[in-house]
Amino acid sequence: MSGLRVRTLAIAVLAAAGLAAPLVWSHPFVLHVAIQALIWALFAASWDLLSGYTGQVSFGHAGFFSIGAYTAAILTKVAGLSSWLGMTAALLLCALVGLCVGFPALRLRGHYLALVTLGFGEIVQLIATNCENLTGGPFGMHDYGTFTGLPSDPLAQRQDAYVLVAAIALAGLAIMLTLTRRTNAGPAFRAIREDQILAGSLGIDTTYYKLLAFTLSAGFAGLAGALYAYYIQLVSPTVGSAAASALVIGMAVFGGIGTIWGPFLGALLLYSITEGLRFIGVVYNLIAVGAVMVVFVIFVPRGLAGIRLHRRGRQQRADRPAADAAS
Predict the structure, then answer these.
(1) Of the residues 31, 121, 259, 320, which has the fewest C-beta atoms closer than 10 A?
(2) What is the dihedral sign for C-alpha 168, 43, 274, 86?
(3) Rounded to 5, what percent of the chain is helix, strand, coil?
(4) Burial 185-213 (b: 16+ CB within 10 A, else e)
(5) CA of 122: how far to CAs of 116, 140, 225, 240, 244, in Å?
(6) Which of 137, 61, 138, 70 is nearest to 101 (CA)?
(7) Which of 4, 51, 17, 22 has the alpha carbon at shortest distance from 190?
(8) Which residues, listed in sequence order, are joined to residue 142 by a DSSP beta bridge?
(9) How far apart are CA 140 and CA 238, in angstroms?
(10) Could you give the CA distance from residue 302 to residue 285 in angstroms, rounded to a whole number?
């Protein structure tokens, strides 16, 4: 068996063991942290699909997360729909909103695009705060239920919720990885990130691929928001704040921008560290997480995914230059 297959098998075994650990150690707090970490991991991967792969930096990505959460909560509470329909509706609506936001962004890049997306996130938060009849206003929404079909026993309910969230988050990750690695979209995204004008001159339909990135990224962010709404069972305007967008960007940087799996893993680790260190104090655990991020930025600037890997007898970075992928 080649070294590459052994390494791949070892990674698969470690990933399976990590996913099974919360079920083996079925403590309510462990399951609680693991479920939320998976939700943030899907959220971080969705941001990376847009900003890491295409270079369309979004500072208001939490707006899509908030729209997805409120959509799921409203449809379940007002219309009585199941969580499955609520999650599907959240994904589709956020994908449509992402497509609409993507149109004005076609001519914008860099700081201008960042300001537009930041403004979008603030608009969503203001609407959620002021539309009290629909969203509950500053106090948010609650008492709309959780995932459909979960058992009544608290521990069994949390275990089943973990399995459900893990399955959906991993399915979302698999779809994004397949899109960026097995289709023409991946090289096109990276070419746009490196040089949009050059990509267009090479025949790449930059309009189509930028809108595709906005649509899919927003859809998966909305799905993550729906998962959050059904698990936490409380949605407030703070879920769409600029601080939430900043947090998910930090998770993506920690994991490695432009790799999809890097931000997913980075969010899992960073959220787990943040919650696991709560016993030392709310302020001190944030200081510890900040110190970890500073160390990574200095010594591992490309994040977890940037650690050198031995592949086929030579060293390559996990996030190879976009120009190589485009060629």
Answers:
(1) 320
(2) negative
(3) 75, 5, 20
(4) bbbbbbbbbeebeebeeeebebeebbbbb
(5) 10, 16, 17, 8, 12
(6) 61
(7) 51
(8) 234
(9) 9
(10) 24
Q: Are 102 and 215 in contact (CB under 8 A)?
A: yes
User: What is the per-residue DSSP string for 56-106?
Assistant: ---S-THHHHHHHHHHHHHHHHHS---HHHHHHHHHHHHHHHHHHHHTGGG
Determine how many CB atoms are found less than 10 A away from the CB of residue 269.
16
pLDDT over 90, % of the chain:
42
Here the tokens at position 274 are: 């943040």
Residue 272: which of 39, 46, 61 has the closest Cα? 39
**Maximum Cα interatomic distance, the chain, rounded to a whole number of Å:** 62
For 130-159, what is each residue's pLDDT tens digit?
A: 988 889 889 899 889 899 888 888 888 999
| Closest of 300, 263, 291 to residue 48, by C-alpha | 263
230, 86 in Cβ contact below 8 A? yes
Question: Which of 45-49, 139-143, 271-275, 308-312 is most confident?
Answer: 45-49
CA 188 to mean position of chain CA atoms: 21
Distance CA 99, CA 77 (A): 27
Angle, helices 28-47 vs 154-182, to 10°: value is: 20
pLDDT reported for residue 324: 43
Residue 316 per-residue DSSP state = E
> Is-contact 125 140, C-beta < 8 A?
no
Distance CA 305, CA 23 (A): 27
When pLDDT is cut at 50, 70 and 90, the band that residue 224 belongs to is very high
- What's the distance, Cα to Cα, between the start and end of the chain in Å? 31
**Residue 313: predicted pLDDT:** 40
Confidence of residue 202 (pLDDT cuts 50, 70, 90): confident
Closest C-alpha among 6, 35, 3, 55 to residue 210:
55
